Amino acid sequence: MAFTNEQLERYSRHIILKEIGVKGQKKLMAGKVLIIGAGGLGAPAAMYLAAAGVGTIGIADADEVDLSNLQRQIIHATADVGKAKVKSAKETMEALNPDVTVNTYRTFVDSSNILDLIKDYDFIIDGTDNFPAKFLINDACVMAGKPFSHAGIIRFKGQLMTYVPRQGPCYRCVFKEPPPKDAVPTCKQAGVVGAMGGVIGSLQAMEAVKYLTGAGELLTGHLLTFDALKMEWHKIKLPANTHGCAVCGDHPTITSLIDYEQTECDGAL
Amino acid sequence: MDITVAGVKKTVSDGLTVAQLIVDEKVETPEYVTVTVNDEFVESGTFDVTVLKDGDNVEFLYFMGGGR
C-alpha cells in the first residue's frame, strides 16, 4: 500500500515521528477501532482517530443528539440536535478525513450483541456513561481477548486504564461489581466540565494509536487519574496478581455476560 | 509513623487501620472505594482489621461512571 501525495501531506506530522513513521501510519490505516458511546469521551476520541487516519472506526450509540449534549460532545453541532448520534458523528468524521471508513451501530449495546460488535475490531474504546455498560464492555473484552480503554469522567475529575489480555488487570479486578443504583453519582446528577471529555477521551484515542502502532508503553496495570481543580495527575499502580478475578482470573466465576440494571446519565445506551 | 496516601507523604499514629484512614481522609462513598496497600488489594471486608505499617503506600480507587 503506497501513500498518495495527499496522504503523505495529511499524515506528515505522524510520519516524521520516529515512533510512528511510514510503518506506523500504515498500521493506523489498517487499524480498526470501535468506540462505544458517541458522547463526552467518544466524541474527541472519534475525531482524533479519524484525523489520525485509523482505517476503520466503528461507533455504537442508540441515542439522538440533545441540546444538553453540545456542552461537551464536540463531534455534534447545533444543527444536529434530534439526529442520530452515530449519523452526526459519521458526518463529522468523514468531513475530517474521507480516508476513514466509519461503521455505525445505532443500537443498545447489551449482552446479546456486544460480542458480535467487538469481534472485528482491534481495539475498543469505552465511552459509555454508566456502570452496567462499563462492566459489560470489560467482561466482553476479557472473554473475547480484546484490548480496550476504560474511562470515566465526573465534575472536574477523570480517570482511565487500559486492558490488554494477559498484560495486567481488568476493570473488574479493581471494581468487583457495579455499585447499587444511585449510590455513586452520574454526570447528569453531578455535572461535568465539557473539556474533561476532551482531556480523557483524547487520552483514550492516544492509547488506541499507541496500541495500533506499538509506540511506547500502554496504560496497562495502572489507573491514571486527573483532578482539574488541583491540576494534578496521579498514576496508581494496580496489583499485578489478579489470579482471583471473577472474570480474568485463573478460575473465572463469571463466564457469561451480565445485563445489570441500567442507571445511566441521559437515556439508555 | 509515616505513610504515603494517594502519592502524598503523611505522618499518622501507630496502629492506624485502613478503616480509620478512610474516615480521616474523608473518602467519598467509602463503602464503594477500592483500596490498595503497597500495590496489593485490601479486601473490603477487612478494612477495620488491616493495620498500616510505617512506610506503607495507600491508594484509594474510586468508581467514576460518567462519560457521555
- With strands numbered from the N-terminus, the spatial order across the biggest sheet of chain B is 2-1-5-3-4
Secondary structure class of chain A reads alpha/beta
Profile the largest sheet of chain A.
Answer: 8 strands, mixed
Helical region count of chain B? 1
Can you identify the CATH class of chain A? Alpha Beta
Indicate the low-confidence ranges of chain B by residue numbers.
Answer: none
Helix content of chain A: 25-40%
- Write out the CATH superfamily name of chain B: Beta-grasp domain
Write structural notes for this entry:
The complex is a heterodimer of chains A (269) and B (68). With 269 residues, chain A is α/β, with parallel strands linked by helices. Chain A has a single domain (12-237), classed as NAD(P)-binding Rossmann-like Domain (Rossmann fold), CATH 3.40.50. Chain A has ten helices and eight strands. In chain A, helix 4 packs parallel to helix 5 (85-96). Residues 264-269 of chain A have low confidence and may be disordered. Chain B contains one helix and five strands, in the order ββαβββ. The N and C termini of chain B lie far apart (43 Å). The longest helix of chain B is centred in the first third of the chain and has 7 residues, at 18-24. With 68 residues, chain B is mostly beta strands. Chain B has a single domain (2-61), classed as Ubiquitin-like (UB roll) (Roll), CATH 3.10.20. The relative contact order of chain B is 0.30. The A-B interface holds A 37, 39-42, 69, 73, 126-131, 134, 151-154, 157-159, 173-175, 179, 183-187, 190, 192, 197, 223, 234, 236-241, 264-266, 269 and B 6-7, 29, 31-32, 34, 36, 39-41, 59, 61-68.
